[in-house]
Amino acid sequence: MAERRQMGYSVHREILDEGVVDEMAEKSDSKTSLSEKAKKSMRCSGPKLKSCLLGSIPVLSWLPRYSIRENALGDLIAGISVGIMQLPQGMAYALLASVPPVFGLYSSFYPVLIYFLFGTSKHISVGTYAVMSVMIGGVTERLAPDSNFMIYDNVTNSSIVDIISRDAERVRVAAAVTFMSGLFQILLGLVQFGFVVTYLSEPLVRGYTTGAAIHVIVSQLKYTFGINPMRYSGSFSLIYTVLEICSLIPQTNIGTLVVSIVAIIALILAKELNAYFSKKLPVPIPVELLGVVIATLISWQVNLEDKYGVDVVGLIPSGLQPPVLPTSSLFGKVIGDAFALAVVGYGIAISLGRIFALKYGYKVDSNQELIALGLSNSIGGIFQCFAISCSMSRTMVQESTGGKTQVAGALSAIIILFITLWIGTLFEDLPKAVLAAIIFVNLHGIMKQFMDIPALWRSNKVDMLIWVVTFILTVLFNPDLGLAAAIGFSMLTVIFRTQLPTYSLLGQVPDTDIYRPLEDYNQVKRMPGILIFRSSATLYFANAEMYQEALGKKSGIDITKILSAKKKLEATRKRHEKKNEKKAAKKNAVDMEGEPEREEKKDIAIIKMDDEPDPSIPRAIVLDLSPVNFLDTVGVKALRSIWRDYGEIGIEVVLAGCQIGVVDNLQTGGFFNDKVTKSCLFATVHDAVLHCQSARTHSQDELMYSEISATHL
Amino acid sequence: MAERRQMGYSVHREILDEGVVDEMAEKSDSKTSLSEKAKKSMRCSGPKLKSCLLGSIPVLSWLPRYSIRENALGDLIAGISVGIMQLPQGMAYALLASVPPVFGLYSSFYPVLIYFLFGTSKHISVGTYAVMSVMIGGVTERLAPDSNFMIYDNVTNSSIVDIISRDAERVRVAAAVTFMSGLFQILLGLVQFGFVVTYLSEPLVRGYTTGAAIHVIVSQLKYTFGINPMRYSGSFSLIYTVLEICSLIPQTNIGTLVVSIVAIIALILAKELNAYFSKKLPVPIPVELLGVVIATLISWQVNLEDKYGVDVVGLIPSGLQPPVLPTSSLFGKVIGDAFALAVVGYGIAISLGRIFALKYGYKVDSNQELIALGLSNSIGGIFQCFAISCSMSRTMVQESTGGKTQVAGALSAIIILFITLWIGTLFEDLPKAVLAAIIFVNLHGIMKQFMDIPALWRSNKVDMLIWVVTFILTVLFNPDLGLAAAIGFSMLTVIFRTQLPTYSLLGQVPDTDIYRPLEDYNQVKRMPGILIFRSSATLYFANAEMYQEALGKKSGIDITKILSAKKKLEATRKRHEKKNEKKAAKKNAVDMEGEPEREEKKDIAIIKMDDEPDPSIPRAIVLDLSPVNFLDTVGVKALRSIWRDYGEIGIEVVLAGCQIGVVDNLQTGGFFNDKVTKSCLFATVHDAVLHCQSARTHSQDELMYSEISATHL
């Protein structure tokens, strides 16, 4: 540092305005037109076609180069571990989606295999995901509510729900929305809209997943307590559901509650043990699988269902089901939900994928990811899966157990296939409360995200606001509408941040060419007679007027007052001139002298007195436009009116630090004319200040001269 | 210019980083906290209270100082001229609002008087306005459609509309929505939300009024053709209405059409004459009043209604009606429309008011205007007026006939009162087609706004897009929803403009300290070994990722590739080290020499070869952040990961040109730590470049040294 300080900063050059810089540096005018750009990107060639093909089916490029020696063992262990996790999670998340558990197994099989073929991330574990499942649950319960499937039971003399046809309808709805969301993803991928995910900023995603987790929890409470609350849909449904559950708590099924509590405590303890011994164990204990197996055994032995009325999973058909085209009549009703699912699923998958890509030094292609997820979902939809994304917890396991490529995912899918074909039916006695417990325990990581609030409070309050507002909107308006509202809000914050900028007057850091805000520094020197003004934000329609107001306030120049005073003065002057003319005429006629002359002098004195330069009024204003990103017509008009208004009272206005794009905006916006040329634009504030200092005395002389000649005309 | 060029620009100083600047200029830490600011603004005092009172009832401050000698004559002539215009316009716009014509007269009286008391603009003519009226028409016809008032007519044996009760209901609806919009305006004024109008940028307002004019025209076509089309509401209703009118054209009432054509031609001719003689006439001919009077006389004499079935104005009750509290049960149904009316009415009035305030050098207080319009509307609503704003055409007449203060408006209101009380009934025979013709001819000015499109195409394409999109949205989705959508769109353009910035590498303009994009200038010098990178926009969530990608692309450094290569290299190095350790152990044990030494050298050579500095890879990267307005957490993270990633492959990353607020964002966002201090922030790009040049050789030596010592450990 000391060494650096000894290094000198020394510049000798002319004062440069924009025109001179353009001349010196030979500004080039050639711009590639839009059509040329389009042509360039459309051009086709042999190697390009090949790389395009390999790009769209990545498995063709990486599988032939798969190194069995390096990767096979890790992938095998990871694949088995993840496959074992997929079983209980798939069944549990099927409950969230309000479809029978076996469809969760399907969703853990087909999409995973397809992602293996088309995906570019080597480490994420694609499959069922809690947030997506709860979003699908919202759709299925809205379009196939219990009330649509009431039949009259002759035995009990009451209406009961026809569960079989209801569930069949719900599966149809889930498949339709999944298929559509897949189509949306493919479409977005084909038009290279992978960038939409940039709107899902980190605070937004974290606030959103936390809010969705609240929905997940509330939707599972009924299994935990063994109650049967009414289903609400639409905005504020979460609040109504919570109230309903509270009112139903007296009807809690004690057996179910006991099972829930035992399962939750056991799972938490086992997970803690797992974390504690994680370094000593080569592969983590499959806690959830053990839980499911033990719970099924107990339930089967004790016969929990009949003795204590504990709700169990029920019929699990073995084998796969033939593909069915989705019910197209449902498409119109689920289009909004499908779009939300497409965006959320992609957003979660790509952000996790990027984390691991960065860690292991490879690249995830965002548009290819969209297509891969889209194909997984749309083909999955045909096989009656529900929409998938990737799960944080499984991905962590896949990576930590040594998974190195997409092969691990394919192996996990094979394990699920094996379970579905032969073992699935064994789990028919599993209490649903245990699945709910698995969901609760898995939400542990998401719940930790509440700690973002104090962290963001310290680092960036606007981002904290985005987090909190997203969370509240998601909780209140459900995950689909809430996401849209939250994205809208996060965009609004950009407007707010640029709409209320800091306006400051700059002064010179002594003996340098650096200018800093006067109010932030004590040793910054105000330049005599020159006002340097800067707004911290872009100048555009939302703040153009404030810019003008702030300039007036900071400079202490009440432009309207001065202008109206000037107008009055001019009127007076004109009257005097007329009088003088008359008098001159008279004088010529009568040829008298002395008296009129004196009066004329008095008039000039009056005018002079008002025109005396006020020491508080600067001679020049430098507008530092370096923070301006672009100018719209409103911004250009504001600058022009500043130039004109202050120019009228004799203050020179110059601009400094404009970017090339801003200069272009000024040009096309008609800022320049005969009087205003590029010579009032300066490369730096210091150039502008030097110009004003040199021009000052000169222009004062000129003004004085023009004044004198005007009054003596 | 030549003189200025001779002036030198010459700076000698140390290279300054942010820390040193802070030290030199004594950065002050004291910031006024939010609570202090709040306290300051809440503080109350005697003079403040008085100015507050005078501010809220401006008439108290300006009327006592009213100069009769200077203003009275102008105000009198202007008042009479405007009052004469208010009569036909008020009746015509009442048709737009779908209420009986007399309510247009009320709307030209009460609100105008109230604005006289509370308004701050001296020149605008408050009263009925076409766009507002058509918006109210949308509400009244939606909530009180013809179909709700069908009664069975015994005479003709068919259902006819009970016009009296329908119109009574429509008046109630109009009064309710007007009252509510007034309340909204008062509320917005009290919370000092006058700034919302800044969202209504000029291209948006002009596109919007043009779109609304299309609605006005379509809604009046039925009077021109004398047909009775069905009423459509909601989105796309304009298209349905046009189709309906086309299908009904065969049923045109020939008498009505003739009246329309004659009236339109006569009005246009008269207006042209008026414009032609405008300089010779002291007061413009009241074309519209003459038209109304002549049309009424002809209609009465010929008995157009009975002979040719021409629809006439009908019953005009003389006298005023007692105030009625608005029907509160309607409030819920009109809340959205009321808000739209409040915003539009205010937006139009304030933009016109500002134009004249600027012209005559006085100030319009935006919050007081909101309150004045709000009081006009809410009190007007109680007296069964419909919502008002100010009309361009009347305002022009008021100003050109010499109106100088709000007194002109008050006089026009008195004229309307006089007409309402005694003369109104005379106009009962006036054909509605003539009123429609007046509306058409008055839209002439708005239709000229289509010429904005080519003008904006030349000056700013994004603003042209805002104009066109606003116009289309307004036409398709009706004025209320269209306005909201258009505001949303215009905010989105800000995101778009900053989301797709220009990324460029900068080079030095020879022999200066100025850096410009290499692709824009031919004579700009790339600094050897130093990469200077700039984005034209703020760095935030929507473009943070692209910023990193663009940096990689522009610099030609594939960071992931290099990092993974480096990781492999390190693994190799470690393996070698382990081998060497073993060998060293062996060597110690066996005490042999020669052979191992040689191998070690080879190892180093391997490492060296890969580590050789690539000449295409720079030694330092300077990120010019001067266009950055603010940083959110995503932006800070992007910068931090750039610093870390490039730092890992030995490239120094420094930032230049950060504003104070951006430095604060970096600080709170946790960008700085033990390694990253404010010494990697520089005041200007040139400082950063000089630092990198001076640090370069030094750091290379250091690196070499550390490498050697590492391999020999």
From TrEMBL, chains A, B:
Matching PROSITE patterns: SLC26A (PS01130), STAS (PS50801)
First-listed, main subcellular location of the protein, grouped into a coarse class: membrane
Membrane topology per record: Multi-pass membrane protein
Domain STAS: residue ranges: 520-692
Biased composition range(s): Basic and acidic residues: 571-583
Keyword Membrane set for record: yes
A single MF term (Gene Ontology): secondary active sulfate transmembrane transporter activity
Transmembrane portions of the chain: 93-118, 173-200, 238-269, 281-302, 338-358, 370-389, 409-427, 471-496
CDD domains xref list: STAS_SulP_like_sulfate_transporter
UniProt region (Disordered), positions on chain: 571-603
Gene Ontology CC terms, in alphabetical order: membrane
NADP as UniProt keyword: no
Localization in the cell: Membrane
Keyword annotations from UniProtKB, A to Z: Membrane, Transmembrane, Transmembrane helix
Protein name: Solute carrier family 26 member 6
Organism of origin: Cottoperca gobio
Source taxonomy: Eukaryota, Metazoa, Chordata, Craniata, Vertebrata
